[in-house]
């Protein structure tokens, strides 16, 4: 009621109040809202992006079997699999993902020898552009790489390559792991870049893994959240506010550590 009073004072009557909560509070608060008819003016969102990443790490840890490789000690390996060590967990999955992509690339080019020289040349140009730290050159090299991928129909050839190997349980399991790790990193990127559409897309793509690996709170509540924010497209003022990036904590604003949950719209 106090939050709605602030909203009414600032933007007038008839506008929703956005309240951001960690999952521990979001679930009972959402249940309370769904049981009453006088709380429709509230828009609740699970704002614990860090906790969501930790739950994603637990999902990936439950899907895979981690062993010591000499890079991390046994305690770090255990905490990484449990989602308790976020920085090292993300780092470990990035390293694993890069290794698996190297193996994938080797197997793919063995089947498509003609693509190797063309794409290798574009990749080297992109690498040189990134080293030069010239934004214009990076964009030019990146666009050239994308154009080559489209011209040589690489995406379709990769789909065929994967389809031909669907009979291998190890290949399918590895591709599933790679998909989970990439989706988690897309979610992290969405937070870093304040990209609202990418945030919703990445969270929606990972939602099936919450179901599959028994992350019950997230499996139950994230679909409810995604369905609710989808309806925001009818509220242009609020939807544009989300698209502008104010759903992310930003320490560079004039209001320190202020998030959309603290600024009542």
Features:
single chain; 265 residues; mainly alpha; two-stranded parallel ribbon; 12 helices; 2 strands; 69% helix; 4% strand; disordered C terminus
Care to describe what's here?
The chain is mostly helical and 265 residues long. 69% of the residues lie in helices and 4% in strands. The chain contains 12 helices and 2 strands. The protein has helices at residues 2-11, 23-35, 49-63, 74-81, 86-111, 113-132, 135-151, 154-163, 169-193, 196-212, 216-230, 236-243; strands spanning 17-21, 42-46. A two-stranded parallel sheet has the order 1-2. Helix 4 (74-81) crosses helix 5, helix 6 (113-132) runs antiparallel to helix 7 and helix 10 (196-212) runs antiparallel to helix 11. The radius of gyration is 22 Å and the shape is globular. It starts with a helix and ends in a 22-residue tail after the last helix. Mean pLDDT is 84; it is low at 255-265.
């Amino acid at each position: 009621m106090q939050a709605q009073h602030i909203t009414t004072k600032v933007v007038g009557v008839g506008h929703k109040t956005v309240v951001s909560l960690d999952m521990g509070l979001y679930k009972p608060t959402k249940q309370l809202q769904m049981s009453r008819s006088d709380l429709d003016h509230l828009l609740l969102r699970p704002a614990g992006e860090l906790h969501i990443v930790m739950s994603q790490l637990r999902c990936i840890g439950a899907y895979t079997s981690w062993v010591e490789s000499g890079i991390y000690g046994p305690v770090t390996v255990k905490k990484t699999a449990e989602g308790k060590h976020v920085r090292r967990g993300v780092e470990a999955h990035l390293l694993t993902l890069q290794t698996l992509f190297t193996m994938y690339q080797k197997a793919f080019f063995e089947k498509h020898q003609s693509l190797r020289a063309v794409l290798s040349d574009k990749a080297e140009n992109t690498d040189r552009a990134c080293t030069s730290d010239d934004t214009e050159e990076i964009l030019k090299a990146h666009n050239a790489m994308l154009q080559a991928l489209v011209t040589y129909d690489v995406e379709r050839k990769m789909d065929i390559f994967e389809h031909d190997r669907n009979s291998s349980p190890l290949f399918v399991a590895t591709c599933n792991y790679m998909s989970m790790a990439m989706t988690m990193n897309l979610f992290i990127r969405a937070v870093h870049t304040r990209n609202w559409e990418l945030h919703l897309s990445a969270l929606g793509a990972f939602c099936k893994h919450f179901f599959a690996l028994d992350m019950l709170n997230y499996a139950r509540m994230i679909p409810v959240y995604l369905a609710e924010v989808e309806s925001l497209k009818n509220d242009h003022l609020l939807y544009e506010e989300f698209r502008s990036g104010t759903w992310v904590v930003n320490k560079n604003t004039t209001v320190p550590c202020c998030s959309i949950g603290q600024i009542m719209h």
